Amino acid sequence: MSHVLIVDDDSDTREALAAIIAQDGLTTALAGDLREARIQLVRQTPDVVFTDLKLPDGSGVDLFEDLDPTSGVEVIVITGHATVESAVSALKMGATDYLVKPINMQRVKAILSRLPRPGDLKAEIGTLRGELRRMGRFGLMLGSSPAMQEVYDQISRVAPTAASVMLVGESGTGKEVAAQTVHQLSLRRKHAFLAVNCGAISPNLIESEMFGHERGSFTGADRQHKGYFERANGGTLFLDEITEMPVELQVKLLRVLETGMFMRVGTTKEIETDVRLIAATNRDPEQAVVEGKLRLDLYHRLNVFPISLPPLRERGKDVELLAQAFLDELNERYGTRKHFPPAVKEMLLSYPWPGNVRELKNYVQRAHIMSSADSDATAVVPLQISIAKPSAGTAITIPFGTSLAEADRQLILATLEQCGSVKTRAAEILGISLKTLYNRLVEYGNDTKPAEGEAGDESQTVGRANV
After folding, report:
1. Which domains does the chain have, with CATH numbers?
2. How far apart are CA 322 and CA 315, in angstroms?
3. Which of 88-102, 236-250, 412-426 has the highest mean pLDDT?
4. What's the pTM value of the predicted model, to 2 decimals?
């Protein structure tokens, strides 16, 4: 049977908590200050600790020093309305959740319902780390590079807590997958995970989508609608592209975070919700604050535990690991046995992937679709040049009187540079075979040899440039 330690200098609060906890079939021990709490810790190690932050002889967070970090003890801090920031600080130190006085007993029950049996969650995270060492997987995430190892460590620490998480990363780096992994490793995993793209909802409808509306509250509202906060009760709400949310709605979102209460559009009746928020943005959030896209107070509330997701170009051989995983999925779905030829493998490692994991997944799908039915190899399709970040120097100047051979040399080398040294793509743009390109590079003093299976028709000639 699980054991709970309640630490509070107010006897009424202690007794009320003990009564609620007993209804859940748990044993309790009571303490009025840190000294009594430490005596109780020696007598029996609890599975859960409810502690007030302000005690006669110190702060409730001082108990962290008396708890074995490997014991799996869950700590829920109790605070007054005026010291919510202290509770947020406690979450950063490792507290699982917090309660605001006067304590809402329904919220206590909700917290107890999410608590796993001793060590279950930490054991599962440990199992996932073992799986990572074997297969490069961590929950729904894939990759074994040092950059991703750091992300996994951060997720391991924050997932079991109630702390809000801010995911920052370029488009396509997998922010929603990271949010799902946090949810699956949290105490809320048995409840809903809902994802909302704040930039994809009309500004006129986003308040209704977030908080719901009553029938007849506006034109077209022919029935009651439950919003994301109501449907995600007990679970996790992922707000993608948070900087695209209208500023006036950010005020209402902040109130929900502070009070746990909201109102549907068209009513003054407050509804209680217990939701963990994970926000994400592909912008610099601090710059978004400066530009007025994100309220400073909301940023601090959401940014309790920031996690930066690395771009694919900084993840080394994770590119191969991810590409193979995407290809394995396609092979299983369509009953094929495709593999990447050497030319594709070269492109995968040399291309900078401005669209990150999303772009890589799309490329693998194109290569699989374009491959011939009677071949086990994927097609060598050209990589698309991203329009998001146009390259500088897309034109070359060739003076009058330059020989045709020299003009060809400058054109080939400039095209290769613009393609990030991806030879297959450069040959495609120039309208020559890959073998011809390699031969020209050898002539220009490059000793690079074509990889196996890359040689093409040598009879093609270089396309002329307009000079």
Report:
1. 3-118 (3.40.50.2300), 127-308 (3.40.50.300), 313-370 (1.10.8.60), 392-467 (1.10.10.60)
2. 11
3. 236-250
4. 0.66
Report whether 164 contacts 216 (CB < 8 A): no
**Per-residue pLDDT tens for 149-181?**
999 989 988 888 888 999 999 999 999 999 999
φ, ψ for residue 312, nearest 5 deg: -60, -30
pLDDT of residue 347: 87
> What H or E segment, with its residue span, contains residue 12?
helix 11-23
Dist CA 401 CA 315 (whole Å) = 46
Determine phi and psi for 166, rounding to 5 degrees: -115, 115
**How far, in Å, CA of 23 to CA of 46, rounded?**
17
- Residues 199, 226: contact at Cβ < 8 Å? no
The DSSP symbol for 336 reads -
Closest CA to 351 of 393, 323, 310: 323
Run of H or E residues at 261 = strand 261-263
As a whole number of angstroms, the distance between CA 142 and CA 177 comes to 10
**Residue 196 to residue 200: CA distance in whole angstroms:** 8
* Residue 33 to residue 102: CA distance in whole angstroms: 19
Q: Is 211 within 8 Å of 224 (Cβ atoms)? A: no
Give the pLDDT band (50/70/90) at residue 400. low
Give the model's pLDDT for residue 458: 38
Neighbouring C-beta atoms of residue 156, cutoff 10 Å: 19
Residues, the chain:
467
Among 428, 430, 448, smallest CA distance to 438 is for 448
- Between CA 89 and CA 101 the distance in angstroms is 17
